[in-house]
Write a structure and sequence with these properties.
Length: about 290
């Protein structure tokens, strides 16, 4: 069955969902997006996704085409028109179609699309044995003078870093800025454990505040784990006792090799595993299991 997509007020088959070649998202990456997980028919932490969407829109001087309540309704309407209880939803809002040029016209109408696809879980051995990642120097980028990274459609830096990581046989590329600070992955946030202290790069102009990252920080606090949002160097990561990644699809993914070097014992660490269990409890509580 062909997926049904929401596009600018209409529900249409995926093959009929088209945008103009003058759309500013297509021309300039002038757009925002959110990727959300659906567990048993419920979007996980939708409020946090919409909070981030609103912050990003404000940073881009982009007026959202619908109210927050209406966007939530559209997301569920689109999901319900597609099969499956577990899914991934991609919401994209571009500035819309306009006259070519770097500046936009104030009367430009933003475009909104929602696409639902079945959730495909990563290989089981990734969680059992951990994965390998590569540090990609001088790859982290920021948008203009924004003090806080936003989830924009401008993803070229991440695409190139991910290709470098793939060439190195790694699951993920960890982007490092020109000051040697570890920022985040191309599609993930990174955490490390050293002597029972959990650390993650602080949110700044290079580091995106991931929704799963936010949930993990809260779970760590609730379980009494000391966690610090701080500057982390490449050497810090290489010397960590445990390293893991977080994102919507992976949830909490253990890392056991960085740049070919073994992390800790070479197996997923105890704190990583404990947080994995707490995260699943959190999901089960939210969906009412």
């Amino acid at each position: 069955m062909e997926p049904i997509v929401y596009l600018n007020g209409e529900f249409v088959p995926l093959s009929q969902a088209k945008v103009s070649i003058l759309d500013r998202g297509f021309c300039y990456g002038d757009a925002l997006f959110e990727t959300m997980r659906v567990y048993s028919g419920k979007i996980f932490r939708l409020d946090l996704h919409l909070d981030r969407l609103e912050r990003g829109a404000e940073s881009l001087f982009l007026k959202l085409p619908e109210t927050r309540e209406r966007i939530e309704k559209i997301l569920y309407q689109t999901f319900n028109r597609n099969q499956g209880a577990d899914a991934v939803i991609r919401l994209t809002i571009s500035r819309g179609e306009g006259i070519p040029g770097k500046l936009w016209q104030e009367d430009t109408t933003p475009a909104l699309s929602v696409y639902v696809r079945p959730y495909i879980s990563p290989p089981h051995e990734w969680y059992q044995n951990g994965v390998s990642v590569s540090l990609i120097p001088d790859s982290a980028s920021k948008l203009g003078n924004l003090q806080r990274q936003i989830k924009s459609a401008n993803y070229v830096s991440s695409i190139l870093a991910r290709k470098q990581a793939e060439d190195l046989k790694s699951v993920e590329g960890i982007m490092v800025n020109d000051q040697g600070e570890v920022c985040d992955g191309t599609i993930s946030n990174i955490f490390m454990v050293k002597e029972n202290l959990l650390s993650t790069p602080a949110i700044n102009s290079y580091v995106l505040g991931g929704v799963t990252r936010q949930v993990v920080l809260k779970l760590a606090a609730q379980t009494g784990t000391v966690c610090k949002e701080t500057s982390i160097s490449a050497d810090d990561v290489l010397q960590g006792d445990e390293v893991f990644l977080t994102n919507t699809g992976w949830e909490i993914l253990p890392v056991t090799r960085v740049d070919g070097k073994t992390v800790g014992s070479g197996q997923p660490g105890p704190l990583t595993q404990a947080l994995q269990r707490e995260f699943r409890k959190c999901v089960d509580a939210e969906i009412g299991k």
